[in-house]
Design brief:
Structural class: mainly alpha
Distance between the termini: 138 Å
Number of helices: 5
Strand order of the largest sheet: 1-2
Number of strands: 6
Oligomer: single chain
Largest sheet: 2 strands, antiparallel
Shape: flat
Length: 231
């Protein structure tokens, strides 16, 4: 039997040729080849300035106030260096010979100044004087000692005992006696029978207070001069 051939075959071919990209994978069909005369020249891509106009509206361009880069001024110096050097030698002070010290029979010598035989250090103006940094350090030490002594004296004055005057002493005695009378009246008002703990504690407290007040009054009356500490 004959092979089957579809009746839509020409339409399929036509559709395939219509939608096909001929140069999709193989490149364009024809490419313009560059001419060998149009090669890339040196500095051909650098920007070029417009040509300078010599005349603008019929007027000449004013000359530049700054000299050109190629300008080289002509320097004419007329000096006689031979005469100048001769005058410098004639008018110059002659050099003094350097002192040397010879210490051997063969004539071995060395400069005298750095040898230590010349007493140049003891002839200095500041020889034997105390250096400035030492005097400055001594002054700082004395200043610190004075500040420390002043602080110690201030602390001692703060902690020193204060002497009571006669008026203050009498006023304190009167206040102590008044407190003793009040405490004594409270003590006398206590009940005779101490059957509770609270009553015993109050009695002991009043006894201690009376004893302390009597001791203070006796100390103030006994001593003439009284001193108290500053808190």
């Amino acid at each position: 039997p004959l092979r089957y051939i579809s009746k839509f075959r020409p339409y399929v071919k036509q559709e395939a040729e219509k939608n096909k990209s001929k140069w999709k994978t193989m490149g364009p069909a024809k490419v313009a080849v560059p001419s060998p005369n149009d090669f890339l020249q040196k500095r051909s891509k650098e920007p070029k300035l417009a040509p300078r106009k010599k005349d603008q509206d019929g007027k000449k361009v004013p000359a530049l106030s700054v000299p050109r880069r190629t300008y080289r001024p002509v320097i004419r110096i007329q000096k006689n260096f031979i005469n100048k050097n001769a005058l410098a030698v004639i008018r110059g002070v002659p050099k003094k010979p350097r002192p040397f010290c010879v210490d051997s029979r063969q004539g071995d010598k060395y400069p005298l100044e750095p040898s230590g035989l010349v007493p140049k250090y003891i002839k200095k103006k500041n020889y034997g004087a105390t250096p400035k940094y030492v005097t400055r350090r001594n002054e700082e030490i004395k200043k610190e000692e004075a500040e420390y002594e002043a602080s110690v004296v201030e602390q001692l004055n703060e902690r020193a005992m204060k002497h009571l005057s006669d008026e203050e002493k009498t006023s304190i005695l009167q206040a102590l006696k008044k407190n003793w009378e009040e405490a004594n009246s409270e003590f006398l008002c206590l009940p005779v029978q101490m059957d509770t703990r609270y009553k015993k504690m109050r009695k002991e407290k009043l006894e201690l207070k009376l004893k302390q007040l009597e001791h203070d009054i006796e100390a103030l009356e006994k001593h003439k001069g009284v001193y108290i500490a500053n808190e």
